[in-house]
Fold these 2 entries.
Entry 1:
Amino acid sequence: MASIRSRNNKLLFDFTYKGIRCREQTILVDNKLNRSRLNVILNNIEAEMRLGRFVFKKHFPSSPRCSYFAEIDEKTEDAKNNSVNTEEQKLVTNIPTFYEFTSEWLDENKIQWKLSHYKNVSMIFERYLIPHFGNQALDEITRPQIIKYRASISEPKRLGRVKKLGNDWINHVMTPLRGILNEAAIRYDFPTPFVNIKALKVEKTPIEPFSLAEVQLVLSKVRKDYKNYYTVRFFTGMRTAEIDGLKWKYVNFDRSEILIQETIVDGYVETPKTSASYRSIQLSQPVSDALRRQFKLTGQQEYVFCNNNGNPLDHRNITKRIWYPMLIEMNMKPRRPYQTRHTCATLWLAAGESPEWIAKQMGHSTTKMLFEVYSRYVPNNTRQDGSAFDLLIKQTQMDKTGDSVYE
């Protein structure tokens, strides 16, 4: 039976043709994505063999076995040239299969993507798109087929997965599918099938910020070696990748600021999330004090918060070992560490800080997020909506006798 095998960590084809066992080496390293790619090719080879259309030198032009199969290849090509059918007419257009174009498209787009995004998109092709569309010519993929595929991936199929995929993740899968089909349509001059397929509606995840009393309780109970870390998280609004990638060279005690210039994502140093994310965060007194304490511990290291080897913290490990056990011990509702960022925004708003200033501190390009999400968590000190405006009117719209000008 034909298979993909590994030799010295390089993949090879292992199949039998005309009674001869063929083991054809490739230059691809042994990983899931490359195995998926070669399995698509192997399926095509087996199909061509069954149809009597397999030409050995077409697939393995550098193989020493080409001379052995030369006569068979010549007869096969003669038979193909004398048989005109729809499939051959398609081959003349040189439109590749979905799998064949995938590698080219990923390589072309890699330059404009962060490494973490490239790895994520590659995983989507490997796990979802290539197994379903890999063997099809790009212009054979239809709009109904795409819609049916989108519906099918929401259902749990793998052993142990009982929950459906969320709409947000399904949209993530469909985004590179749309991108590759739209590019192929332009390049090979056929109408794109990805037409009027709107993204699925994604319900907004409610944010659950901590109150100031809860923040103070957390900081009083957290393990001492992580108190500085969570103080900075709660009172700067930094994203996880930003605080984990924070280096001492970006902390300026004289100017009382942190510069956000780099992040850490899956162990790789990357640029901040957006252009607005490059920013200066002003240090409050609790943050300044926490960083000065931390400097005594890790000031000789590159990263502000690091392990004993000086390497950046693994946020998944910290969340599992420190964050959730701490909340459970304090009988607090489990919340993601990212809620520290939401907490900071709501505390700034509650303190009466300027929305424009808060947006810059958070790395938002506008105040839209503040007014749409965070502002509803600001406590209403009047306890009656609109009463502050009524009070303003009463104070400024009186005539000299003290009577209202509106009466």
Entry 2:
Amino acid sequence: MIKTSLVIVEDHVLISNAFSELIGKFENYTVLYECANGKQLVKKFEEKNNIPLLVLLDVNMPEMNGFETALWLKEHHPEVLVLVISLHEDEQTVVQMIKNGCRGYISKQTTSIDLKLALDAMTERKMYYPDWVSSILSSNLSKESTNQLVQPALVFSFREKEFLKLCITDMTYKKMSEVMFCSPRTVESYRDSLFVKLNLCSRTGLAVYAVKNGFE
């Protein structure tokens, strides 16, 4: 059985070890290593075999905190899924972490059952927002007529623009990865990110959007 690899980035050793031990009991998951902050994670990522599918990320950490780490991952490893595990449940923190590219958010006070549910959702659907997070996002959208949460999502990175242009062609995703000089998994991460940003669910939808918005 191929297990889903993950890394824990948490500055409190006891908490990090506790999560690692708990996840180690889940049949389909394996913890590659633990880091005390984002700076250590960046150093670890210099070795290809150290790059996981999932990163469990704390918010408050020394040297390189969760906000900075999430942005770094979004820019350099968009294929890596980020699940926030934090005691901070305030609207500002939740919204900013999601703006910075995190695809899931749970409390450190979560149960083992809910943690497993979150990990499964991240693996299968690429995101996990429990009801309390969905309420925060809904409230944020309602309060801000300029929709600060959505606006950053509509600012495309260079690689996302490149991917949208290729969506108009008849290239397979594998061929796209060759043209973009990256792995098929990374191409899929661009696709999934754009699905979320544009509220679409198919390549045809992406192609239509690309044509209508001048990405040819």
